[in-house]
Amino acid sequence: MAGTDRTKADAAALLPAGPAVVLVEPQLAENVGAVARAMANFALSDLRVVRAPGKTEAEGARVRSAGAHHILEAARHFDSIEEAIADLTLLFATTARGRGQAKPVDAPEAAARLMAQHAAGGGRVGLLFGRERTGLENDEIALASRVVTFPVNPAYASLNLAQAVLLVGYEWFKAATGGAPAFEMPTRSPPGTQAEIVALFAHLEGELDETGFFRSPEKRASMIRNIRNMIHRMDPSRQDLQTLHGIVAALAEGRPGPQGRGRTLLKPLKDPEEG
Amino acid sequence: MAGTDRTKADAAALLPAGPAVVLVEPQLAENVGAVARAMANFALSDLRVVRAPGKTEAEGARVRSAGAHHILEAARHFDSIEEAIADLTLLFATTARGRGQAKPVDAPEAAARLMAQHAAGGGRVGLLFGRERTGLENDEIALASRVVTFPVNPAYASLNLAQAVLLVGYEWFKAATGGAPAFEMPTRSPPGTQAEIVALFAHLEGELDETGFFRSPEKRASMIRNIRNMIHRMDPSRQDLQTLHGIVAALAEGRPGPQGRGRTLLKPLKDPEEG
């Protein structure tokens, strides 16, 4: 349950209703449990199971759901696909191979965009998933409006049931939420001004001049440009610049030999305690 | 192994080198096997394991890899992360939570684009994955240039190790291949021309006029527009139009009562045997 925060459940509740996941004759309860887990990861909650009585209650399902018991407990069982999908207004069938049916085929990302649009318009979307070994039958696929398939390595295309649910759920969650990562780089101290960056250049280059670092005068200008570009690529904050001043000073101070001076040439930008 | 086609291995071999997957102290051999399977799905092959001797050879790993033995057998073991990542030129750390490190954070899709660009420029990319329960330590994350995290339901954020590898592999494969589905809607018979579509309108509307379907003369025009739009949305092929002519004819022919006529009004577009 690493990373789970149940207090944030309200945020997920504000998402539009995600697609119903309709499992047709799933063979292993463990897979049904893994599907429930994948659904929970992406805020899907409507699990429907066709002709697999007991599979959501089995111990194997509970264990593999890794705590997504609420999805297993709310799952509904049906005797036919037609009953399971009766209320849905847009139905996708998932298949691993082309079945020669005259039906539009979407990758998960495009399917998720259609799902989000359809749900935003008040429609109710669902996804049909077939049996672990044999998938959906052709007549079952014909019940759907569209087909979803997965861009996978053709040399090794065996996605298991829960992985297929995971990928569609992931794309749906991205489409519904904008796909921003769950956190961002923390706000750092204010960015350094150009004057503060130039002050670091002066400090560093002054010390390097003292040591005779720029042995070849004709290359000095291009070496300095490179060093300045390296520092710019760091995008240093004011605090980063202070740290760099400190590093330059410490290296210069500790330097043995005729130029070792036991002092800093330039003051830091502000007192370190303020950082 | 449904959907797998080993003869297509050459196609995957033409992809740029995918990211190395570096597992730091994985705890369960089964998870290492599931990681190998997820890697194979998306044509990743470079598995590196840090401080988990024997985990790739264990029976549990082989079983859960579902045939991706080649990846387990080629996996390399290391005693330190530093050794495992020594040759990589761009390293991402995966984390479920913000760790307060001043490092850019990418969702998997953005990370995959950077990986593909970097690999296209001759670089070698890798991804660090932490322990199942506790993830990566802060000092381990500090080894990476960037962080990848997953847009997941904050109320249920527990992605397992193989699912995390699956999502990054999926996004990498999309970025490297363009993300087209593995197959498309089959080529149908040539699309119907406007003349052929208008001929169907004439056939259908003629039959409907015969039956008195348009009871309200002032609504006839708008009803006909709706019916024509329905047929256009079908995007009918020439063969679909033939089928529709056949349906209209069959329904009209079989109709009992004064208008039942036992004949078709219009010939099909071409002989059914040619279809």
The largest inter-chain interface, given as chain pair and residues per side, is: A-B, 64 and 65 residues
CATH C-level label of the largest domain in chain A: Alpha Beta
Number of domains of chain A: 2
Instruction: Average the pLDDT over all residues of chain A and give the rounded result.
Output: 86
Morphology call of chain A: elongated
CATH topology of the largest domain in chain A: Alpha/beta knot
Element-by-element helix/strand order of chain A: HEHEHHEHEEHEHEHHHH
Strand content of chain A: 5-15%
Distance between the amino and carboxyl termini of chain A: 36 Å
Helix content of chain A: 40-55%
Assembly annotation = homodimer
Structural class label of chain A: alpha/beta
Q: Which consecutive residue ranges of chain A, at least 5 long each, have pLDDT under 50?
A: 258-275
Number of strands of chain A: 7
Indicate the CATH architecture of the largest domain in chain A. 3-Layer(aba) Sandwich
Specify the number of helices of chain A.
11
Strand order, biggest sheet of chain A? Answer: 3-2-1-6-4-7-5
Report the radius of gyration of chain A as a whole number of Å: 30 Å
Described by strand count, sense and barrel closure, the largest sheet of chain A is: 7 strands, parallel
Instruction: Give me the CATH superfamily of the largest domain in chain A.
Output: SPOUT methyltransferase, trefoil knot domain
Structural topology:
The structure is a homodimer of 275-residue chains.
Chain A: H1 9-13, E1 20-24, H2 29-41, E2 47-50, H3 59-64, H4 69-74, E3 76-78, H5 81-84, E4 90-94, E5 105-106, H6 108-120, E6 125-129, H7 138-141, E7 146-148, H8 161-177, H9 194-211, H10 217-233, H11 238-253
Parallel strand pairs in A: 1-2, 1-6, 2-3, 4-6, 4-7, 5-7
Protein name (chains A, B): tRNA/rRNA methyltransferase
GO molecular function (chains A, B): RNA binding; RNA methyltransferase activity
InterPro entries (chains A, B): Alpha/beta_knot_MTases (IPR029028), RNA_MeTrfase_TrmJ/LasT (IPR004384), SpoU_MeTrfase (IPR001537), tRNA_m1G_MTases_N (IPR029026)
